[in-house]
Design brief:
Length: about 180
Amino acid sequence: MPTRVHEFAWPDRVVIGTVGLPGARTFYLQVRTGKQIVSIALEKQQSAELAGKIDEILDQLIALEGNPFSIPTGTPIELVDNDPLEAVEEQFRTGAMTLGWDPTTAQVIIEAYPLSDVDADDDDDPVDGNDAEVAEMLLVRMPVGTARAFAKRTREVVGAGRPACPLCGSPVDPDGHVCTLPEV
């Protein structure tokens, strides 16, 4: 089965956003170019890691002598996007992701693949090579300023969840919290 690639070479918008209340939020990576829009679900931790790794790549590129790719140290104000997600129609739930850099276009590249449907109980069944193929994937190429703005917004969205208990660090629910302090 051929892989369906949702490709965005120079997206108009690429953001992480959520649907739901803190403690029960679903995170989405949403990309739009013109009328083409794709939303993929991912975990909070995946979102946080993605933002951190994008900043890490950009910071390493800044350290190159002369900053040959004109990487911004902060988020360009004109690229700040605090708008909510557009209509969300989940394309797939993200499993594996890769992150890369294309020096020919000075773009950060994100590849996202669906969560595998392989069930551990099916170990007795022979695996057909065609079934192991990924049915679809998301490919996003972001210019450096957009990537910096994406990482900043993602950190803010991840941090906007339930507050942490100052004593134990666990999330505090709106209904209360039972603190589980470590024994001394």
